[in-house]
Amino acid sequence: MKKKVGVYICQCGTNIAGKVDTDKIAEELGTDDCVAVCRTYKYMCSEPGQKLIRDDIEELGLDHVVEASCTPKMHEPTFRNACSQAGMNPYMFEMVNIREHCSWVSEDTDAATTKAKDLVRGGVARVVHHEPLRGSRKPVQPTAMVVGGGIAGITASLKIADAGYQVYLVEQDEIIGGRMAQFDKTFPTLDCAGCTLTPKTSEVGRHPNIEIMTKSQVESISGFVGNFKVKVRQQPRYVSLEKCTGCGDCQPVCPVNFDSAFEEGMATRHPISRAFPQAIPNTFSILRAGAPPCEFNCPAGVNAMGYMTLTGMEKYEEALDLVRERMPFAAICGRICFHPCETACKRGQIESPLSICATKRFLGDWELARNEFKHPPIKKSRDKKVAIIGSGPAGLSAAYYLALEGYSVTIFEKLTMAGGMLAVGIPAYRLPRDILSAEIDNLLSMGVTLQTGVTFGTDITYESLEADGYESIFVATGLHKSGQMRVEGEDLKGVVPGTDLLRQHALDEPVTIGKRVVVIGGGNVAVDCARTCLRVGAESVEILYRRTRKEMPAWDIEVEEAEKEGISLSFLAAPIRFVGDNGQLTHMEVIRMKLGEPDDSGRRRPVPVEGSQELVAVDTVVAAIGQAPEMETLDSLSLDTSQWGTITTDEDTLATSRPGVFAGGDCTLGAASFVEAVAHGRQAAESIHSYLKYGGLKEIKPRERAMDPDLTAEERLRAKPIERQPMPHLAVEQRAGNFEEVDLGLSAETASAEGQRCLHCGLCCQCGECARACGPQAIDLTETERIHEIDVGALIVATGIDVFGAVKYPEYGYGKYPDVITNLQYERLCNSSGPTHGEVLKPSDGKVPQSVVFIQCVGSRDRAKGYEYCSKVCCMISAKQLRIFKHHNPDGQAYVFYIDNRAGGKGYEEFMRQAIEEDNAQYIRGRVAKVYQEGGRLVVRGENSLVGGPVEVEADLVVLATGLVPQSDYMTVARALNLSTDKYGFFIEAHPKLGPVETSLAGIFLAGGAQGPKDIPESVAQGAAAGAEALALFGMGEVEVEPTVALVDERLCTGCRTCESLCPYTAVTFSDESKTAAVNDALCQGCGTCAAACPTGAIGVRHYTSEQICAQIEGMLG
Amino acid sequence: MSEFDSKIITFLCNWCSYVAADAAGVSRMTQKTNTRVIRVFCSGMVDPGYVIKAFASGADGVLVAGCHPGDCHYISGNMKALRRSFLLERLLTELGVEKGRFRLEWIAASESPKYAEVINAMSEDIRRLGPFSTPSRVDEPSAAASASGQ
Fold it and tell me: What gap in Å lies between CA A6 and CA A50, rounded to an integer?
């Protein structure tokens, strides 16, 4: 049966009819077969227009309706509704846009008419394929989330909460109040901004229906109108909202200061602070930028920023406590650590990094010298025994942390002395034996038992330990075997493995070396061997390395010191044969190498140079080319191992394949470092604790995120002019023949000076001073960020505005002259809780200014340097600010350089008149060319365009009326919430006139400056409007979900599952029953990606079927 | 002026380029009138078959416009459109559709000037190419299947 279509062409006054000949289209279409009726009307959206449609549907029995008028984004709901009223399914309707796409974009009537006609034809061709659809109804979750706690967000929150619904107020900052909290007075009444704002903020604070989430950001959103799921990331406040009494005792003890963003850089703040006395939440909170580079890059995560700061304050005991939280052996670590903290230190981007490692050594030595070992209190004995195999750094560290937890710990050591590689791998000139034994003795004083000369596998076994009542074992046996060179003659007398040489020397076993010694290898062990050989009497020592100096894994400082001592370095050479006489080494054959392609480790692989062999006379060769584990001893445990022979463990818990047995350090990592081993020890102790206490493995807390590693201009300014303190060394001539320590250590003065060099780039250094000073113990520095998932029905975005960066106008001297400030900085000067307690004073010398010049449109109405738009509020702000100035200093004179004075608003023009007439401000129309300094005063040079000539004004203070700009992170919010922005970054409303707080996404609304520059009353009005939108939604109780979702034609579906892999919402799944794709209507968003990819055309989107679209194409081209 | 009036089937994403097109209209940005707009929910919804169908039905050009990478309303539909476009372009060349007659563009809701520019530039390109005469190979969308099978 032929379908009957009614076509209605709107003239929209002259908006459409002015360029599109609607009558002509109607006449031509009227002859089309399926068109039952075709009418034009002046305003189809008007009631009589809609009635035309309704009547025709009823009288002519139309099957479909096509409406050609404005954009469907405007009136599609209107006309769908009209169809519904007349009993037609609203999806039997199609809307064609002939205004925005035709009449408004063409000067040519014929062309616009032709296009409009084609579009309408397309609509008619399409609509006959439409089918009746019905959306499902879903209940609305009657809770709202308001993003942004400025005055717009506050207003919206209060409206919704007062109506009885729950509100989550998500604020990025530590307090709510937004920009308005920074202002002093408001125009045009000169009301105190604080006095009008704080009643609102405290109402929010105590409202039972509002949950304030500070330091929080919206991460992502899913769902649909009435049923959103929002993910919010919340940074810790570190100060308990419940316990903090706001006494402020934490303030004076905090050692860190930086520019306060709330004070616009006019004052500094401590990381722990409260912006102003009435701030809501009315408790202190701590600002931390994330893990600073020193801490983040430390394998053990030692809080270097914290202990450096405390050392700078000469609080050595507290500093040492902080070190011990993650590094029990400060004196050892400070001597031998490879200090990645220093490599990462941001001060290194200025001149040189802090001498962190040497400072830690000072702390350790300071304690040893006082002979007072201090550790946190040991918990009550748990009566549980833990065995540790190996007394290297991993074992010692595990013992320390387990002992603190109250475990009974026994360390079994195979050698006769404790310390592992610390004792038998690192020569005494780097780590004196008395230091090592002192720190081990300290550990033993905590109740740890040490048994030396006990070999696991022979003297004790897993079974014997179990029988002795040990409930957990930590294996930390290290790597004590030397790697093989696999070179002919390796077994000759005179070829010595490096680790053996060091061990024998450390154990006072006889070490026989000849006069000419060659050390093979490029790591620290090679350098240690070379320096040891020199000290035990070798005449010449050479290090032979197959790559170049650049690739040497040994630390630079070690290599430099070796060279100073007279050790020669030979690169790009390797032994290929050792030659002996009677089993005693006499020569070695060496081949030259060149660097080839990079290998797996990223270093360039050495390649032999053919024919470059030569024979060299040598007495002793020390092979220091790597270490291997002695796994035979551990065989009885039968643990899983890797291809390199190291024990395989879980990366986070260090659990081995055998329950209750944990492993760490070199025997799991391969040859690693002291600090990594200590980190493993601590990790293992935590795992063993949770294994013994809870019978399971510990929950892995996510690590604190790293802060931005790039140096900022502000951090550069924070750098105190103190140079890096050099490490004093033992003179080279005093080193020969002995093992005296070479690095002599920092003094108390130099260590404290190092501490004071810290930039505090991470802001709070977690030194703990505040926590110690806090009476109610409200501070918890171990808090971590949290992710919340919140169900809401509506979301209001009120993320506010930022202020234009005045540095983009270098001619105005902002940043160069301290007395050139922005208008927001001026607000802080006027504010009684601001840096000058409300006195308008020159930042340069604190004197009262006599002449103040305001420069308008800084960043606004300036296509070249700033933004094209008018920021709307700056004219009034300057008028207000000059009036405040005159109230403070009636004899002063104010000048305003303006482009146009814009004072549209209730009472605004009158207010500006008063500024001019009562306060005698001089308004000069014209742009300022330059602000410069002459004879100690600022001079503002501009033009007076009304008089037509240049003008110069002397000024004590210059205030730049900086424009309002989108928040710098607007894109993050836009992406998180799927919002559209305009070209500047303001969020786009649904309609500039009729939908000012709606967005194109149902259920998400806008309020305040995030949508565009506006003043306080407008922001408040929008906040209330957005609140009303949310309430309207809650009042409806249910929403209709569009039926335009994907649909599978099971007859055509071959079950190839292409659609399943493409769906971003996992709405399409494969049904095992029917062997076809199946769509979950609740998850499907109707994007149609599946439909476009379906090879058989089995899946399509309702209302956007391929039949409909192809018909539309044909209709348009027909 | 009336030397050759091309017709360009234009698929616009509801969330970005359709908004830009509306905004261009509101701002009265004069454009060539060659476009024939079809509103879709996502550029990823545009079946390559529609493009071929358009050429087969007499279009002189086809434009698909979607959100910028990373800004898709449906997470990544635009990237799927992009991935398809490479193969589609090769297929169109095989079918005798000259380069320049098919375009995929990213036009954000805020980029109404860009929308007008793209429309004008594409209209001009196609005016220069002249009317698209359907080669015998492109008569039905099913040609796509057989062409790609060769």
Answer: 13
Query: Is B19 inside any structural domain?
Result: yes
Which amino acid type is present at position B37?
Answer: V
Q: Cα–Cα distance between A1082 and A727 in angstroms, integer?
A: 68
pLDDT for residue A346 is more than 70 = yes
B81 occurs within a structural domain? yes
Instruction: Name every chain A residue with its beta carbon within 8 A of the beta carbon of B61.
Output: none
Structure tokens at A830: 């006027």
- Backbone φ, ψ for residue B89 (5° rounding): -60, -40
Q: How far does Cα A415 stand from its chain's mean position?
A: 48
Task: Verify whether the Cβ–Cβ distance B35 to A1086 is below 8 Å.
Answer: no
Contact at CB, B44 and A1092, closer than 8 angstroms: yes
> Which residues in chain B (21-50) have CB-CB distances under 8 A to chain A?
21-22, 24-26, 28-31, 33-42, 44-50
d(CA A662, CA A589): 45
Cis peptide before A510 (omega within 30 of 0): no
How close A887 gets to chain B, by Cα (Å)?
44
Whether the CB of B89 is below 8 Å from some CB of chain A: the reply is: no
E strands present in A830-948: 851-858, 893-898, 922-925, 928-934, 937-944
Q: Which of B16, B41, B74 sits opposite A980 (nearest CB)?
A: B16
| Structural domain contains residue B88 | yes
Cα–Cα distance measured from residue A146 to residue A722, given in angstroms and rounded to the nearest whole number = 47
CA distance B98 to B96: 6
Looking at residue B135, its pLDDT comes to 65
- Could you give the CA distance from residue B15 to residue B39 in angstroms, rounded to a whole number? 10
β-bridge pairing A1076-1079 and A1068-1071: antiparallel
Q: Which residues of A touch B70 (CB under 8 A)?
A: 975
The CATH number linked to B89 is: 3.40.50
Within this chain, do residues A906 and A1023 fall inside the same structural domain, yes or no? no
List the structure tokens of A804. Answer: 């234009």
CATH code at position A457: 3.50.50.60
CATH of the domain at A1051: 3.30.70.20
- Hey, what amino acid is at A1078? A
Rounded-to-5 percentages of helix, strand, coil across chain B: 45, 15, 40
- Low-confidence residues of chain B: pLDDT under 50: 1-2, 143-150
The reply to whether A122 touches chain B by the CB within 8 Å rule is yes
Q: What is the DSSP string of A760-784?
A: -TTB----SHHHHH-TT--B-TT--
**Strand residues in A42-194 grouped as ranges (E):** 64-69, 93-97, 136-139, 143-147, 166-170, 185-186, 191-192
Angle CA A264–A267–A273, to nearest 5: 95
Q: Please tell me if residue A105 touches chain B, with a CB cutoff of 8 Å.
A: yes
Q: CB neighbours (10 Å) of residue B123?
A: 21
Instruction: Looking at the structure, tell me whether residues A960 and A973 fall in a common domain.
Output: no
d(CA A1026, CA A1017): 14
Number of structural domains, chain B? 1
pLDDT tens-digit profile of A956-992? 999 999 999 999 999 999 988 988 888 899 998 988 8
Of B33, B34, B47, nearest to A1092 by CB-CB distance is B47
What global pTM score does this model have? 0.82
Query: Are A130 and A154 part of one and the same domain?
Result: no
Does residue A250 contact residue A284 with C-beta atoms inside 8 Å?
Answer: yes
Contact A455, A480 (CB under 8 A): no
Average pLDDT, chain A: 93
CB A579 within 8 A of CB A589: yes
Comparing A348-352, A700-704, A787-791, the range with the smallest average pLDDT is A700-704
